[in-house]
Amino acid sequence: MLAIAAAVVFGIYLLLDLLDVKTTDLFNFNTFAALGLLLIALHLAGVGSAARTGGGRRFYGRRSTRS
Fold first, then answer.
1. What is the spatial distance between Cα 37 and Cα 23, in angstroms, rounded to a whole number?
2. Could you give the dihedral angle defined by the CA atoms of residues 9, 44, 58 and 67, in that order, rounded to the nearest 10 degrees?
3. 3-class SS string, 3-55
4. How much is the average pLDDT of 44-55?
5. Are 47 and 2 in contact (CB under 8 A)?
6. Burial of 29 by CB count in 10 Å (0-12 exposed, 13-18 middle, 19+ buried)?
């Protein structure tokens, strides 16, 4: 989920750059790059991902031994 947010941040910056929109000092290249890289780093660290418990197939009862 955080990787998607990072992609959105980079996409917004790209659109602003392509449309040559003048932005304030708050929204400059360094701000967008830092925010995007922070979101990617959090994604790679596993923050924001649901904890997986168990997983795989579960069998309840006895399995058939027929071939």
1. 20
2. 110
3. HHHHHHHHHHHHHHHHCCCCCCCCCCHHHHHHHHHHHHHHHHHCCCCCCCCCC
4. 69
5. yes
6. exposed
**What mean pLDDT is predicted for residues 39-66?**
70
Residue where the block lists tokens 């399995």:
63
In angstroms, the CA 10 to CA 37 distance is 9
> Which of 1-5, 13-17, 40-44, 45-49 tops mean pLDDT?
40-44
Residues 6 or more apart whose CB falls under 8 angstroms from that of 20 comprise none
pTM: 0.56
Domain boundaries defined on the chain: 2-45
